[in-house]
Amino acid sequence: MSRKILIVDDEQGIRAALGQLLEFEGYEVRTAANAVDGLAEYARFRPHLVFMDVKMAGIDGLEALKKLKEQDANAIVVMISGHATIQTAVEATHTGAYDILEKPLDTDRILVTLRNALAHLDLHEENVRLRDTVHSRFDIVGSAFVIRAVTEKIALVAKTPARVLITGENGTGKELVARAIHAQSTRAKAAFVEVNCAAIPSELIESELFGHIKGSFTGAVSDRAGKFEQADGGTLFLDEIGDMSLAAQAKVLRVLQDGVVTRIGGSKTVHVDVRVLAATNKNVDEEIAAGRFREDLYYRLNVVPIHVPPLRERREDIPSLISHFFAQLTGPGGLTPRSITDDAVARLQQRDWPGNVRELRNTLERLLILSAGPRVTAEDVERMAGRRADSAEGGLGSLLDVPTFDDFKHAAERAYLLAKLRLYDWNVSETARALDMPRSNLYKKIERYGLNREGGPATLAPNAASDEGDE
């Protein structure tokens, strides 16, 4: 795609000569003889760069530049002046001009300025693309009841200074929750600093968090700020805090209480303004009872608790997650784009995903790499995603372990009903309609098999008892 250039100058000779030069260089060029026409042409043409004369009848170039910047703050404008002064150059720069060129125009200077300006534009566009890519990477995808409850709580707590303790199994997306809280907070423009407490050896965790002074221990060859100082003014995310040593927990507690940090080997305290978010996949009550986690630190961190549900409790989100990850993985420079059949999606929905969303993403990447055809099929899922039996409640793999055929029929019916109820967000009316089953019949089966909605009761229809046709 050729770059588009707009020339706004009241001298026909300048417009013609400059236009001819730029067209010869491969640019698409349009011209305007005054500022009013130039502003209107900018809105229609949406050029990548504008050459604009300073002195024009009616609205001059500097006034037009102000109006253009109001119309598009990212517009790149090079001013042209027959008698430029330092004052004119300063005013043009302060108003937002990229550069100012003097008449008579020098061809080499024009082309160098143009290349530099468009390189600046390329860099800006690349930054926008990368920012969008990063944001999409950390999107929370899904509309299931349990995940909506999480996003609603994020919206409520994000604008407050409250500390949040995020719990959930490995791979459920605890980091995404922490990043969403930061992105929606008043600290969004400041740093988001992450520390994986499980990945750092216990003897190094204090140095990582609080920093150290040169010579304070072997390997401390220079002063180093810790993560608390790096996150000053922003957010510090302590991932897998349940794996932190008791000694480090005591120091973290002091920082939360006093807002000061002391580097290892130092005596000077440094005041920090940090919002702390923490996450763990462990049962904190059990860790406290076992003496592995400080109860006072737990109460400091657990101002607002957020539990991230496992993927098996929101199977209805799997199609959306598949679309999201396929788009991510097959983006620019990524894997070969493929579609996926409905049967393959259904097979993926049946799995229990002990590794949760992280395991699903890895599986989809494997399918995109190894599938031979233009579509990922159910056969591809069976062949490449494995046939591991699902072991959680309602999983289909456990059916093979039941002792009798009678037990198998009951277990299969229970698993089937549980999967359908989850698919329809535990709305009994919608599930019964989809199964062509009277609601009263479905209610009895829910009671018989002890089926319970994760996080709350099923949505019950008030006139269910009036349905007929029970078995």
Model description:
The strands form four sheets. A five-stranded parallel sheet has the order 2-1-3-4-5, with helices on both faces. It is of the alpha/beta class. It has four domains: 4-134, Response regulator (Rossmann fold, 3-Layer(aba) Sandwich); 145-309, Rossmann fold (3-Layer(aba) Sandwich), CATH 3.40.50.300; 318-384, Helicase, Ruva Protein, domain 3, CATH 1.10.8; 397-466, Orthogonal Bundle (Arc Repressor Mutant, subunit A). The protein is built from 19 helices and 14 strands. It starts with a strand and ends in a 22-residue tail after the last helix.
Question: Summary?
Answer:
This protein is α/β, with parallel strands linked by helices and 471 residues long. It has helices spanning 12-24, 35-45, 61-71, 86-95, 107-137, 145-158, 174-183, 202-210, 227-230, 246-258, 284-289, 295-301, 318-329, 342-350, 356-370, 378-384, 405-423, 428-435, 439-449; strands spanning 4-8, 28-32, 49-53, 77-81, 99-102, 164-167, 192-196, 235-239, 260-262, 269-271, 275-280, 304-307, 339-340, 375-376.
Number of domains: 4
3D shape: extended
Largest sheet: 5 strands, parallel
Specify the helix fraction band. 40-55%
Give the CATH class of the largest domain: Alpha Beta
- Give the total of beta strands: 14
State the helix count. Answer: 19
Uncertain stretches of 5 or more adjacent residues? 387-397, 455-471
